[in-house]
Structures are given as C-alpha cells and as structure tokens.
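Incident log, structure service

09:12 report received: a user says their structure output differs between two submissions of the same chain.
09:20 pulled the input from the user's history:
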Amino acid sequence: MSWILQSSDEVLNFNIVIIGFAVPLEISVSELMKATLSPKKIHNIFWLWVVSSIALTSFYKDVFTTEIILPCKRSLTWAHTYELEEHGFQFFFPIPPHEKIFLEIYANGTPFEYIRNLEFSRALAAAREYVGKSFRLLGHKRFAVALYASEGDTGIPRIWKGLHYKWPADIYSNLSSCGKFAYVDARENIKRIIPFLNDNTDGTVFMAGSDEDFLLMRYSIQLRQRSKSNFVANKVNSLQVSGIYKWWEDWFAKLRPNKLFTYYANWTRPTVSALEKLDFSSKFATTLRVWGICCGICVAGGTVEILLHLYTTYLNREPMKIVRKVVRSVVSGLR
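09:34 re-ran on a clean worker, output below:
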C-alpha cells in the first residue's frame, strides 16, 4: 500500500535521511565483505543469489500453473458401500447379459420388478439372511433388506434399477444426471468401465469405491477323502501350486473378456484428451475474481489515503488562514 507525504520539504528531508543512512551502510557492508570474504566467495555468493532467484520464480510459476491446469483431486466421503443407502443413493445393477428373455424385456423398456432378475441376486439373498454379529456383514444385510423392501408392487419408491451392457448410453445418462446414483458391479468390471465413463467433455468424474469385499462370495470345490490317492485332487493342487491354473485364468480373461458397456460402444481407448477435460473457465474466473478483489482493496486503500491527505492538508491550512486574518486585523488596528 502506498503512502503520501505532506509537503515537498518533508519529501526532501526523508530522501536525505534515506541517503544518509543507506550510503554509509552500503560502504560499511561492502568494506566488511571485502575484508572478510575473498573475491571468489563473493562471486559464488552472487551466482547463488541469481540461481536462487530463478528457482524461486520458477517455483511460484509452477505452483500457479498447477493450480490452474491440473484437475481437482477428489476423495471418497464414505468407507463402505452399504453406507450409500443411508445417504439416499439409488443403485444400478447389471442384468445377466446371456439371458435372452432379459434382453428382450430391457429392449422393450419394461422395468424389472424383482431382485432375482439382477446379476447379484444370489449375493443379495445371502446377505439378507445373515444372522451373525459382524458389523460389516450387518451393514450388508441392511443394504439388502432395503433393496428387497422396494421390489414388486409394494408402493415403496424403488431405489434400484437394472442396466444392460448392450446399452452403454444408459449408464452414462443415468449416473451423470443430477442426484445420488451408484453402479454396483464386479471389481474387475468396474476397473474396465471407469476409463470409459470418464472419457467425456462434460467435466463429470466417476470414481470406484474402495470397499472391495462388498457382497463378496467365495466358491470352492469339495473333494471327498478316499482310501486311495485322489487323482483329481492331486492334479488340481499341482496346477494351483505351480501357477498354471492362474496363468490359464488370465489367458482366458484376455482371450474372451466380458462384453461390457465399452465393447458395445466400440470404445478401446480414450478419445477425449486431458486438455479438453480441464475446466479452464471456472479456474480462470476464480483467479480473476481474486485478482479483482485485491485490486479493489488496493483502490479503496489508495482512495482513503488520498482523502485523508486532502483532509489533513485542509486542517493544516485553516489555522494558518485564521492566524493571517488575526495578524491583518491587528496590523490594521495599529494603523
């Protein structure tokens, strides 16, 4: 913030004070440096100062550029998926893609009324029947009970809906609309769908949940013990221990992956560049707004200082006018 002196004499006196203080200080500092430091050290200190100035300037520029260009970092506000139901979310589940009758029903626009028509109906049914005391599994039970409560013609607003992989436009239009929506699918499917959904120019960002054991079901093969060596058990055990079974699983997953929304949308890689996704307008508008506020504060401060200067100058002149009038009246009276 600037400041204004009262008169030219004061400015002159102030400049004399600065010169009288700065010149001896500069001479003493330079003489002290020459006496204590060698020219080589002074040269190194000078270039260190230059490099530090360049580094600090680059750092400030990078901070400003990063704030403007990089997208905002987002984080999940929940720890478990079943908490979404308590926050009023609506859920979308995949419909079994290989069932022809489900495909015809979905194509006709007929809504699904029962949980058994969804992909994870068995997991939801098992979660609803849980009778233990695990806090996490009890949360899964509350979630399943809330879903089952709205199926059929109960009159309760339904909080779930089915989506078919062959209609990729439906998932984006539903999830990106105003409201609280979540899509529930297998973990490996979510990882493949997220890049497809985020490949948009609307600025909508989709995130995967961190609750990896939600509605998790494990399948196993039970082999009965026999008096003789079990050939099948030995072969399965050797395949698993050697890693061959895992290798075959990965190979078949690459050879015949699940045909998700991305497959039917003919999407193989992002088509929208990272630069097109950036919301320059809002960030620049915010920066210009902050800059405008700072300029307004400076203008207001300068205006106040000018008014104070004029006011104090006026007050200083008024007593002088009164003194002059008194002197003139006295002189005229003496005459």
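09:41 both user submissions now match this output. Likely a transient worker issue. Closing.
09:42 reviewer note: The two ends are 53 Å apart (CA to CA). The first strand starts at residue 90 and ends at 94.
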